[in-house]
Amino acid sequence: MASIFSKEKRIIYARRITGFWDEFKRKRIGLVGVSVLIFFVALAIFAPWLTPYDPVAKKRVADDFAMPEWMTIFPAYKDLPTTIEHSLYWDMEQGLEFIHSWGKVVTVKYKARTTDTITVELSTTFSYSEIPPRSFYFMFEWKAEDVVSTEYSVRIRLYTPEGENQTMYLMWQLPRTQQDKGAHVDVESVEPFFRDMLGFGMEENPAPVMFSRKGEYTLLLRMQFKPLSASASCGVELKNARFVIPGRVHGVLGCDDTGADLFSQLIYGTRISLLIGILCAIAGASIGILVGVITGYFGGIIDEVMMRLVDILLCLPFLPLLLTLVFLYGKSIFYIVVFIAIFGWQGLARMIRSQVLSLRETSFIECARAVGASRFYIIMRHIVPNVLPVAFASLILSVPGAILFEAALSFLGFGDPRVPTWGKMLHHAYGFGAFTRLAWWWIIPPGLCITTLCLAFVFMGHSLDEVVNPRLRRRR
Amino acid sequence: MRGYLIQRAVISVLILWIIASANFVIFQVVSPITPISGIVDPSFSPEMKEALMDLYGLMEPLHIRYIKYIRNLFTWNFGFSFQTMASVAEEMSWRLPSTILLLGSAMVATILVGIPIGILAASRRGSKIDVFAIGSGLLTWGVPVFFIQLLFMLFFSYYAYMAWGFKIFPSSSLYSTPPPTAPLAYMADIAWHLAMPVMTLVIGGFGSWALYTRNVMLESLTQDYVVTARAKGLSERTVLYRHAFRSTLPPVVTMIALGVPGIISGAMITEWIFSLPGIGRWYLNALLAADYPVVQAVLFIYAVLMILANLIADLLYGVLDPRIRVGARR
Q1: What torsion do the CA atoms of B237, B243, B246, B252 make, to the nearest 10 degrees?
Q2: What is chain A's Cα-based Rg?
Q3: Residue B48, min C-alpha distance to chain A (Å)
Q4: B26 to chain A, minimum CA–CA distance in Å?
Q5: Which residue in A317, A401, A404 is closest to B261 by CB distance?
Q6: Residue in A319, A438, A444 closest to B265 by CB
Q7: Contact A320 B283 (CB under 8 A)
Q8: d(Cα B182, Cα B176) in Å, to the nearest integer?
C-alpha cells in the first residue's frame, strides 16, 4: 500500500483541496459561516484575555441586575454610576514601632513592652458625586496569633461631608491565650443587623440616606489593642480592607441577579458550545459512517437489523429520554456528549448506506473485487474516501443540532453544573427574575450567540453540501 | 392494502414493546439510582427500606416484575406518584388533553403555514418567496425555539406590561384565574393563552416544512406527467395542485410523521417556559424529584403518541400512494 504521504499523493490531495476551496469560495453564505465560526473560535481561545472575571466563581462585581455600561449614552440612564471601590490604607506618618505595613497588609506585633493602648487606623477619603446608591458593602480580613492577655477591638466609622459620623461596624475581642483566630468580615448595607445597628426601620434602606449628599466622605477603620498585663503579647494581621459601592452599570453586558459579570459567562460559554457541538458531531458521524458503510456494503441480515434499529431510534422521544439518561447517569459534559451522539447518527447512517449501495455496483469496485482485493481493502481504499465528502458536509450540518440539544438541556437545568454555558445563562435568567426586571442583557445575548453559532454551521454545511453532493449540484 | 396495514400495526406494537422494555431496563435494571431513592431518606433503617421496596414490589425477581410492569402499562395502570401519592393515570387524564391541544394546534398550524409557502416557492423559483422559503428553512436549523419563546415572552408579556399595564399575551398557564364560565368565553380564554406558545412553535418550525415541500415539488414539477398536464392546456393552478402537489403528498406525510419527535420535544420546553399544565412540564418536575412512576408513564405516553402519529402517517400513505392502495407489495 503506497503511503498517503508519497509525493504524488500529496500533489493529488493538494489539488483536491484547492479545487474544493475554489468551488466553496463562490458560496457567499458559506464564507459568512466560516468567518462567524472563526470569530467564535477566537473568542473561545482568547477568553481569559478578553475578560478578567471567573465565570464559575460568579464574584460580585456590581449591583444586582446592573445594566451594560454603554447604556449610559441614553439620557434615561446617564446618571447611573459604575462600581466605586476604595482600599483603606494605613497612614505612615503616625507610625509606631509595632506596626508594619506592606501595601494592603498591616501587621501589629508586640511582646510585653508596653501597657499603652495601641491604635491602628486605616482610612480612605473619597469624594462621592453620583446619585444616591442602592447599597454598599465593606470587607476586611484579620488574623490573630500569639495573643496573650490583650483586649482588642475593631470599629468602622463613616464621616459624612457635614462631619457627622456613624459607627458601621463594631467588634470586641476579649483576652485570649495562644489561640489562633481570624475572620473574613463582609458586611452589606442591605443586611438586617446592619440596618438595626444604625437605627433604621424595617422598610428603610440605609445606603441612599447615608450617601444622600455629594462631597467628601471618609471611612475609618480603627483597631485598638489594650495590653492588660506586663506579659501581654499580640500579633494581628489586618488586610484587604475595602469599601465598595456597587455600580448600577457594569462592563459590556451588565450583571445577573447576584451582581456577577455576564460578559465573562458569555465568552466562556463559547468554549463549551463549540466543544460539545464538534465532539458530538464527530462521535455521531463516526457511528453513522461505520454503520452506513457496513450495512450498505455487506447487506443481508446485518443491514436488515441495523435499519430496523434506525427506524426505532428515529421514532423515540429523544429529548425526554436524553433528560432521563443525563439525570440518571450524572450531569457531566462527557455523558451529555455520549448521549447526544447516541441519538444523532441515524440520518447519516441511512444516507451513507444508500451511497454505498450504489457505489458497490460501480465498475471500479467490481474491478477491484475481480483482481482479488479484500473486502477491508475495498472499503478503506475505495468506499470510505468516496463517501467522506458527503459525510463531512453532514457532519457540519449535525453540529447545530448538538449545540441546540446541549442548550436545551442546560436551559431545562440538566447541564453540567461545573461549566458556564449559554443554556445555563438562559436557565438562570428564566429562574431568577430576569423577566420581571426586564434584564434583556441577560436574556438576549446568550440566545443570540446560540443562534449565530448554529447558523454559521448551517450556512457552512449547506454550502459544503452543494459543493460535494452530486445530486444537489445537478439540480442547480 | 390490508396486508400492508397489518404489517405496519404489528411493527408499531413491536416498537411500543421495545420502548416499554427499554424504559424498564433503564429504570429498574441498569439505573445507578434505585427506583425508590426519591422517597427514601438516609435516616431510614434497612428494615424500613426493605418494607418500602416490598410495598413497591421491588423484592420480587426481575422477570416477574417485568411481566407485571408490561401488563400494568397496557392496562393503563401506572401506579402512584411518589410526590403526591395520587394515581398517575388519574392525573394523566387531565394533563394529557392540554398537551394534545398544544401539540395538535401547533402541528396543524405549522403545516398550514409551511406547506403553502413551499408550494408557492416551488412554483415561482427564484422569486422572493422562494428565497424566503430557503432562508426560513435554513433558519429553522439554527434558531432554538425556546429562545424565540423567551423573546416573545419578554416583549409581548413583560415589556407590554411595563409600557401599557397589561400583557398582550399571558406569560403563563392555560386559563385565567378564575376561568370564565361561559363556554365561548372559556374557549376564547384558552385560545388567548395558547396563542403565544403556538405562534412561537410555528415560527420556529414552519421553515423546514416549507423547504422540504419546495424541494419535493421541484422534483415533481420536472416529471413527464406535469409536462403532459401542461400540454393538455390545464390551468396552472390545476397543474400545480392536482397534478404536481398530489404526488408530493406521500413523502410530505412521511416527513410529518418523522417530525413528531421534534415537535414533542419542542412542546415539552414550551410547556416548561409558559407553565402550561401538560405532561411535558409534569415530566420535568417529576424527573427533578425522582418521581419514577410519573417519569415512566409519561415516557410511555410519548412513545404511544409517536407511534400513533407514525401509524396515521402510514395509513394516509396507504391511501395517498396508489401503488400501495391497489394492493401491490411495497
Answers
A1: -90
A2: 33
A3: 24
A4: 8
A5: A317
A6: A319
A7: yes
A8: 13
Residues of A in contact with B307 (CB under 8 A): 315
Q: Which cell goes with A381?
A: 481504499
Dig out the grid coordinates for A219 from the structure. Answer: 471611612
Rounded to two decimals, the pTM is: 0.86
Interface residue A70 vs chain B (CB under 8 A)? no
Q: CB contact, 8 Å: A457 with chain B?
A: yes
Contact B140, A462 (CB under 8 A): no
CB contact under 8 A, A412 and B26: no
* Closest by CA position to A327, among listed B285, B191, B74: B285
Least Cα distance to A391 among A360, A350, A359 occurs for: A350
**Average pLDDT, consecutive stretches of 10 residues, N- to C-terminus, chain A (476 residues):** 67 81 84 93 91 83 85 84 81 64 72 72 82 84 78 82 75 60 79 80 81 83 80 79 85 86 91 90 91 87 85 80 86 89 86 87 87 87 85 88 91 88 92 88 93 93 81 50
With both helix axes pointing from N to C terminus, report the angle between B145-152 and B246-273 in degrees, rounded to the nearest 10.
60
Q: Does A316 touch chain B (CB under 8 A)?
A: yes
* Per-residue cell: B81: 406518584
User: Which of B32, B150, B283 minimises the CB distance to A328?
Assistant: B32
- Is A426 close to B146, i.e. CB distance below 8 A? yes
Asked if residue A340 lies in contact with residue A405, where contact means CB atoms within 8 angstroms, the answer is yes
Helix segments in A26-72, DSSP class H: 28-45, 47-50
B141–A397: do the CB atoms touch at under 8 Å? yes
Check the CA dihedral A364-A463-B244-B311 and report its sign: positive
CB contact under 8 A, B287 and A321: no
Q: Which residues of chain B have pLDDT under 70?
A: 1, 31-42, 57, 324-330
Whole-number pLDDT of residue B202: 93
How far apart (Å, rounded) are the C-alpha atoms in residues A146 and A175? 11
**CA torsion through residues A456, A460, A461, A463, sign:** positive
Residue B143 is nearest to which of A436, A444, A451, comparing CB atoms?
A: A451
Burial of A384 (0-12, 13-18, 19+ CB in 10 A): middle
How many Å from the N-terminal Cα to the C-terminal Cα in chain A? Answer: 38
Distance from CA of A215 to the nearest CA of B (A): 35
Predicted confidence (pLDDT) per residue in A245-304, tens digit: 888 888 888 888 888 889 999 999 999 889 998 999 999 999 999 999 989 888 888 888
What pLDDT is stored for residue A476 in this prediction? 39
Is residue B322 reached through a cis peptide bond, with omega within 30 degrees of 0 on the bond before it?
no
Q: Phi and psi at residue B175, in whole multiples of 5°? A: -130, 160
In A, minimum Cα distance to B136 occurs at A455
Yes or no, beta carbons of B287 and A324 under 8 Å apart: yes
Helix (H) or strand (E) holding A118: strand A118-128
Contacts A–B by Cβ distance under 8 A: 122
> A190 burial class (0-12, 13-18, 19+ CB within 10 angstroms)?
middle
- A325 at interface of B, judged by CB pairs closer than 8 A: yes
Q: How far is CA B57 from the centre of its chain?
A: 32
The closest CB to that of A438, out of B142, B159, B303, belongs to B159
Per-residue pLDDT tens over the stretch A48-91: 888 888 888 888 888 888 888 888 888 888 888 888 888 887 76
Cell 422534483 locates to B219
Is A144 strand, coil or helix? strand
Residue type, B123: S
